[in-house]
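Teaching assistant here, posting this on the class forum so everyone can see the example we discussed in section. The complex has two components, and the goal was to see what a joint structure prediction looks like when all of them are supplied at once.
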Amino acid sequence: MRKAHSLEKSQHIFGYLMIIPALLFFVIFVVYPSLDAVGLSLCFWHGYGERVFVGLQNYINLFHDPVFWLAFKNNIIFVIATTILQTLIPMVLAVMLVKNSFLNTFFRVSYFVPNVISFIITGSLWAMIFEPNFGLLNTILQNLGLETWKQLWLADPKWAFPCIIFVSLWQSMGFYLVIFYAGLQGIPEEVYEAASVDGADSLRKFLFITVPLLRPVTTVVIIINVIGGFKVFDLIWAMTTGGPNHATEVMATYLYTLAFGSIGTGTPHMGYAAAIGIMILIFSVLASVVQLWVREADTLEY
Amino acid sequence: MSIKLKVKVSDIVRNIFLFIVFAVTIFPLVWMVINSFKNRSEIFIGPIWPEKFILDNYRFVIENLNIGRSFINTVIVTAFSIFLILIVSVMAGYAFAKIKFPGRDVIFLIFIASLTIPPQVTLIPLFLMLKEISLLDSLTGLIASYTGLGVAFSIFLMRAFFVTIPDALRESAIIDGASEFVAFWKVILPLARPGIATVAIFQFVSIWNEFMYAATFILSPEKRTLQPAIRSLVGRYSTDWGALCAGMVIAVIPILITFIILQKQFIKGLTAGAVKG
């Protein structure tokens, strides 16, 4: 009895010892900065001197800041557009590539390649492609005799955002494809065979078998898209830094510009920027809560 | 006969479509590589395929822009961060999966909940904290920040992996008189290699490619890692495309080569959070 007790106790101690190193990094580099971000968002502070506590003033100012509203609106558009495109297109491609042949595997792996390349390189590369004078896209259009299709692309407020959304799709398509592909492996072949016997064509099989049975996977893909969309930064920073004239400004680029963009030329607004960070956090948490809620509903159904 | 013909035609249309997607996916990268071997005037007005391939851009970014230094910095930061993340997350992941202690589930839940915190939230406070403890503009500060940033998700992956290893292995080792540590170190850890590989690959790609922290916490050019170094090559009005492309190729090559060699593990590692099993 005493032996069992001491065994249990030594197990407790061992458990704590094993998590202490992780806890140390976690508390210092995640928990403390997160709490400090909340505190900072309640202060006026320009990066030096005393922080002045102002309560919710930064948040009130945010509500009256037209650039923040624009960034917020753009962020919502980005989330919706990328989520729709980056769910539907990978899903369709995964269905097209579901059979295990050499060519299909080749396509799947090739489509995944952009996913290992950084957003900064992806963004800079596509900024070159979209460059109006010497860029690849306008050169190709010129050579095809399609001069009238040429655009200023990233320099045109109308086109800049669609271009960025396209590049986001280019970068992440293969990633979501793999997730759908893994999900498709879980659908038994017999379901399709039974449908074939009943005379269903491929489109019907896709709409009435694949789509409903993939729902748990689709939920995961949508949530990853939504959370990623709210914190998008690198890609836009590399392609337009939020321009032209805030046309592609999102919350994270606005935050970065306010906190670090004006170094040497103006006053950083640390407290105000921190408040934007908290706004991004709130949307990110909301999306996660919805995910938990939807997953719960999914499991109840079965 | 006509049905068979229809199937063939739809197959051809499908393959053409898939090939177009392939071209749009891969050609920009090929264009990047070709540009890195062209001289300035040829990039801007010459044909896509150059008359001759030159190494001037690579010489320029290595000799004048010190990209070699950035490359080494990136290797150092990535290697040390992965090493630290692996140690702490393997230990904690094991404890969360196999060891019973009071408060375990609550602490694990806090780790998981922290995954919703976007890096932008901690960016400013971390910057201020690093400044306070004199770790701003130092690779050590960046390594520590990456470790903190990567710990929660790595623990999540490691725990999920340890859960799949039967409890009986640890228990029988303990009954045979092994200490908890020996059971972990000698019995379970050797079986954890695939899980460790998954975490290592995920963190390799994340940290090698990370930009925001690197650009904010490192100020002097000679301490820069690759992503901010490449970003600094983009000038608002006159970007040297050849140099930029050469820099990008240098930054992409290590990751692309490992991807080509370890395709399966890579794809598994990067999608591990989303795909169960």
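For the discussion questions: The radius of gyration of chain B is 24 Å. Residues 2-36 of chain B form the longest helix (35 residues). Think about how each of these relates to the inputs above.
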